[in-house]
Amino acid sequence: xxxxxxxxxxxxxxxxxxxxxxxxxxxxxxxxxxxxxxxxxxxxxxxxxxxxxxxxxxxxxxxxxxxxxxxxxxxxxxxxxxxxxxxxxxxxxxxxxxxxxxxxxxxxxxxxxxxxxxxxxxxxxxxxxxxxxxxxxxxxxxxxxxxxxxxxxxxxxxxxxxxxxxxxxxxxxxxxxxxxxxxxxxxxxxxxxxxxxxxxxxxxxxxxxxxxxxxxxxxxxxxxxxxxxxxxxxxxxxxxxxxxxxxxxxxxxxxxxxxxxxxxxxxxxxxxxxxxxxxxxxxxxxxxxxxxxxxxxxxxxxxxxxxxxxxxxxxxxxxxxxxxxxxxxxxxxxxxxxxxxxxxxxxxxxxxxxxxxxxxxxxxxxxxxxxxxxxxxxxxxxxxxxxxxxxxxxxxxxxxxxxxxxxxxxxxxxxxxxxxxxxxxxxxxxxxxxxxxxxx
Length: 440
Prior knowledge:
Radius of gyration: 22 Å
Structural class: mainly alpha
Distance between the termini: 35 Å
Oligomer: single chain
Helix content: over 70%
């Protein structure tokens, strides 16, 4: 299994981005001091200046190809719809009504764990972390505004719950990518994956209960209208029904408009303005996502991703070492690409070769790919999930890291599973034809 060495220097743009984005915040104590878009633009310029053998025109075209990747564009569309739904629901009064209802029926010390569990349930049914965050982030923000629970903790609970389903759902694109690259079955991967991460979910719930105990709130139990909660109920129901994430968000937005027209919260002009403001509010996130996509494509073309693959596979000497190599392989690829689906697709074929050579159960290799990619994706401050939650809440994405209990714990549980050889399934049968489920 010979892997080309690649080019370590190709990772320079990523280093520049992290140095500017994180370094400036650490030095100044203010992570808003240098706009994240400025950091990625500088990194993109560095990427375009590299590889002098290729013309600037070709490099710009390659950058545009990366920015226009289907996964990148799908995220952009979700951002836009999430902004429209969030803003229209907020101005209609849905967020306030939903928050007040929650605080009226759920004990104070269970608000955050409830947010985490609802997020886990929705993402498991919906198969997308982005749609889950778009639906629940406004509620988390509302809870924090009426309690002494920090908004960073609320957003971390939302992101953690969202990553639960992203990792496990059989209609999640990460699950589909992991299963296909490892040539195993959806249900087999789910069972293996579930038993590894279940302790992480339980521990996360316990931690959230513990750190939110003693929180206080002031809410009028009669201050909410059940009708105004309908957009969020509709989002939950359509998500659980497995509907396309775009249909889910559009349904919520339209219902917010209909209810707003009925109770006088909206006129046609104000409703359209709310939608437009919500979309415009995601502009920075859209720019950032496009520039990350283009920069990552240049890094890949120049050999940066290949260097990571070679570095992590050159000294494998045991089955456990091979499993840790698969985990490290997809983790570092995810750090470089900021997209867990792309990282699995990139690292998956090589992970499959490693699994065959060292007799690793394909259910285990598929689970390791998905677990560690979702762990990294749920923590990196330049990943779409953390960026979206932070943008909606108006906080620094770095501030979520100390509360990223679930993403951290699934990595810990994954590492423990490698060390103790868990789960010890009987040898997997020859793979059947993998079902052609695709994530919507």
